[in-house]
Amino acid sequence: MPSSGRQEIKKTPVGFKCFLKSPPEKGKANDELIRFLSEKLDVSRDSITITSGLAGRKKRVRIEKDWTIDEFMHKLGVQ
């Protein structure tokens, strides 16, 4: 959710919900999402791609890294 005033990620029944500080204009929220995930997951920004939803609230993100689901969830800090 752009312009939320905080950076946070929460697990939902159908995926994840990210709260971002940047407004959804001129790609600022998309850039912040990639930066946030990069830092949270300790991967390079180049390994994260928004594959769909660039202009919408719902996005599909590809992260090129070999993890188990448990490793991924631990890196995100959600269970």
Can you describe what's shown?
It contains 2 helices and 4 strands. It has 79 residues and is an alpha+beta fold. The protein has one domain (8-71): 2-Layer Sandwich (Conserved Hypothetical Protein Mth637, Chain: A), CATH 3.30.1200.10. The strands form 2 sheets. Strands 1-2 form a two-stranded antiparallel ribbon. A two-stranded antiparallel sheet has the order 3-4. Strand 3 (48-52) and strand 4 form a beta hairpin. The longest helix is centred in the middle third of the chain and has 14 residues, at 28-41. The protein is globular, with a radius of gyration of 12 Å. The mean pLDDT is 90.
What are the key terms here?
28% helix; globular; two-stranded antiparallel sheet; 79 residues; 4 strands; Conserved Hypothetical Protein Mth637, Chain: A; alpha+beta; two-stranded antiparallel ribbon
